[in-house]
């Protein structure tokens, strides 16, 4: 057994190039600010343009990582083979009826990417819409973005990111010929068809801000496209979508906790956008059309867990909103879908979801619900793209149950299982145990914790544990199935998800309690979850690896500063750790929209001090830290590469232990790591090998 995971000699040492600036009379010193490239926007699109000194440092860190993890190479390969063995290589999705066709995606054996296909509803030969493998063949990185079929089913609008920067290019494929039209539109964020020849799209600017909506006529020169909407508020991002009814294209613009929607009739796509309700501080709403009315999911009038309203299409402003599904504290309405005769919503109570549906015009007492009996599970709604239908699709999984796809008849309540994800190497749910416990946090809040372990794992305090958390933006962590994590669980790990404040598992107030001055609740909840796992005998202090990515990486960085001795190790994936500097910089792509989460430290001294109090980079201390693995991506527009790079540099220069600290930067991709269903397994294997080594499992026998 390995007793420790120690640093190697000659770890990279970043140059110290002192810089200082003053905010609210406070001098902030930063020896590593130089790691932010002056041409970072160019480098995001073309990573090879990164300045040589920065590229040299990141390359040295990558080489150090490779050497430090060399003794896990065989283990990582075994893990990849195990994970790949759980993937059905010649897989396909359950066909989905849409208009006169059944649409699906399928994978060929060995293929990294899907092929989008369709067949006539009455049967017939399969038609290939888009072979993503062929499009990706010449690219080191390739990620399909949106794919939208035109209303006449003749043209596929599809977007792709070819370097991880999330600057997507839009192409148009003639379905009959199988060839794209002879032009592309660059830097497109979202698209929506109005009719068979007219499409709206959003473009992002150089700062990656989606701010302009254009109208395009199929086959015309994009230089002639008409600008129909511009968002001047840098806090707001813009998105377009075609409503399921087909009657309108919606232009949604907003930030995390506030938005505004304009609509354009698809029968008159050249008309000016018409606002539903002007932006109001704190007001959120989403819309669906049903007949001559809009259905509106909203938090208006302090409906913090949301309610559903209706308003005439002709006069949709808030003055005409009427309630049809009231607000109920503790019952979070997560999403809303409308068909011609049905209203469907996903709601969550006590961190567990259920799907409800009601026939149009019927009283609420006739609402039906779809629920399941496991202690922890995940539901996903996948409404039909058709408006006039009684069919509804949803997915179900749990930590022990692979994903299942159901078609549901809204009239009869009949539930038909269309697909169960196959695990070719074998999977018996009875071999695993899923539990839900609660942890009492520092202020008495009861934090749900989902646990997965093998039935043969002894819960006597000896098992290693991987604890995952996120806790920001109202994003919940559903207890869904993951075939990859079984490799850890089969090796005796307890896998746990801490449903900390900042998510919405327990409703909107669970999220609101971790904003602004409440943000430390996220970190204290994660610590409480770890302590509860110890108290339950699931693991022991010093046997827990904590993991999180992006804003979950903020959680990791904060709990490392606060309770370093609690952890056996930490995995921080593209971590948001230089919080103060980022939220002070309104030139960065996402910063203005973030002020509704953290506060605006530029204008507010109180927000400045609050963020400064927990920002991981600003609170690195001369203390012992556990082994740490950090990842980054040069093309990442969400958490820019220099945040994790600066954090690692300061940690290495400050901490007092001799435990390993590694930074692995993907020099050719962004926030989501490598693309392709098999290539991505390398990222998972790397993390698991680190967790095994950090907890003292011998890589030769694992």
TrEMBL record:
SUPFAM superfamilies: alpha/beta-Hydrolases, Peptidase/esterase 'gauge' domain
Any GO MF annotation of the entry: serine-type endopeptidase activity
Alphabetical list of Pfam families matching this protein: Peptidase_S9, Peptidase_S9_N
Superkingdom in the source lineage: Bacteria
Gene Ontology annotations of biological process type: proteolysis
InterPro entries: AB_hydrolase_fold, Pept_S9_AS, Pept_S9A_N, Peptidase_S9_cat, Peptidase_S9A, Serine_Peptidase_S9A
UniProt keyword annotations, A-Z: Hydrolase, Protease, Serine protease
The family this protein is said to belong to: Belongs to the peptidase S9A family.
Protein name: Protease II
Originating organism: Limimaricola cinnabarinus LL-001
């Amino acid at each position: 057994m390995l007793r420790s995971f120690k640093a190697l000699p000659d770890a990279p040492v970043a140059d110290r190039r002192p810089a200082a600036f003053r905010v609210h009379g406070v001098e902030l010193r930063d020896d590593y600010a130089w790691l932010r490239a002056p041409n970072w926007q160019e480098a995001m699109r073309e990573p090879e343009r990164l300045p040589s000194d920065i590229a040299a440092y990141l390359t040295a860190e990558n080489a150090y990582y490779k050497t430090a993890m060399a003794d896990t190479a065989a283990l990582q390969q075994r893990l990849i083979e195990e994970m790949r063995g759980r993937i059905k290589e010649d897989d396909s999705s359950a066909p989905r009826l849409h208009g006169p066709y059944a649409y699906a995606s399928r994978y060929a054996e060995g293929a990294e990417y899907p092929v989008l296909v369709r067949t006539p509803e009455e049967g017939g030969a399969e038609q290939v819409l888009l072979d993503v493998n062929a499009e990706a063949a010449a690219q080191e990185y390739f990620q399909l973005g949106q794919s939208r079929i035109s209303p006449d089913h003749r043209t596929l609008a599809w977007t792709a990111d070819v370097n991880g920067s999330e600057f997507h290019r839009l192409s148009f494929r003639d379905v009959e010929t199988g060839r794209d039209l002879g032009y592309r539109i660059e830097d497109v964020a979202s698209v929506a068809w109005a009719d068979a020849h007219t499409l709206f799209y959003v473009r992002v600017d150089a700062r990656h801000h989606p701010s302009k909506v254009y109208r395009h006529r199929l086959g015309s020169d994009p230089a002639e496209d008409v600008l129909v909407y511009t968002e001047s508020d840098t806090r707001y991002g813009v998105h377009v979508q075609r409503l399921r009814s087909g009657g309108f294209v919606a232009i949604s613009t907003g930030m995390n906790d506030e938005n505004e929607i304009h609509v354009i009739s698809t029968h008159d796509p050249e008309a000016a956008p018409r606002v539903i309700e002007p932006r109001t501080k704190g007001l959120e709403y989403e819309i669906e059309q049903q007949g001559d009315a809009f259905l509106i999911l909203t938090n208006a009038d302090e409906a913090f867990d949301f309610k559903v309203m209706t308003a005439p299409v002709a006069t949709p402003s808030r003055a005409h909103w009427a309630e049809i599904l009231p607000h109920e504290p503790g019952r979070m309405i997560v999403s809303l879908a409308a068909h011609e005769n049905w209203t469907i919503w996903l709601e969550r109570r006590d961190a567990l979801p259920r799907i409800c549906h009601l026939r149009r015009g019927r009283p609420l007492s006739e609402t039906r619900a779809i629920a399941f009996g496991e202690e922890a599970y995940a539901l996903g709604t996948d409404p039909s793209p058709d408006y006039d239908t009684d069919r509804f699709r949803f997915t179900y999984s749990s930590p022990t149950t692979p994903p299942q796809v159901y078609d549901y008849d809204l009239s009869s309540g009949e539930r038909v299982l269309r697909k169960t994800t196959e695990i070719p190497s074998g999977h018996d749910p009875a071999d695993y145990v899923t539990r839900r416990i609660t942890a009492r946090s520092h202020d008495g809040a009861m934090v749900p914790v989902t646990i997965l372990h093998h039935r043969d794992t002894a819960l006597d305090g000896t098992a290693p544990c991987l604890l995952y958390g996120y806790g920001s933006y109202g994003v919940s962590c559903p207890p869904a199935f993951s075939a990859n994590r079984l490799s850890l669980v089969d090796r005796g790990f307890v896998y746990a998800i801490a449903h900390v404040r900042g998510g919405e598992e327990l409703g909107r107030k669970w999220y609101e309690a971790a904003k602004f001055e409440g943000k430390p609740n996220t970190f204290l909840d994660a610590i409480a979850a770890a302590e509860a796992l110890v108290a339950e005998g699931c693991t022991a202090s010093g046997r827990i690896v904590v993991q999180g990515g992006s804003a979950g990486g903020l959680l990791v960085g904060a709990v490392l500063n606060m309770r370093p001795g609690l952890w056996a190790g930490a995995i921080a994936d593209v971590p948001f750790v230089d919080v103060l500097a980022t939220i002070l910089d309104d030139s960065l792509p996402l910063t203005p929209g973030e002020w509704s989460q953290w506060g605006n430290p530029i204008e507010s001294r109180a927000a400045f001090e609050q963020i400064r109090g927990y920002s991981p980079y600003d609170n690195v201390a001369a203390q012992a830290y556990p082994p740490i693995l950090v990842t980054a991506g040069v093309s990442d527009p969400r958490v820019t590469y220099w945040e994790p790079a600066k954090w690692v540099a300061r940690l290495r220069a400050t901490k007092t232990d001799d435990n390993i600290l590694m930074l692995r930067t993907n020099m050719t991709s962004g926030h989501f790591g490598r693309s392709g269903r098999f290539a991505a397994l390398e990222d998972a294997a790397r993390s698991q090998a680190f967790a095994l080594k950090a907890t003292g499992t011998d890589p030769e026998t694992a």
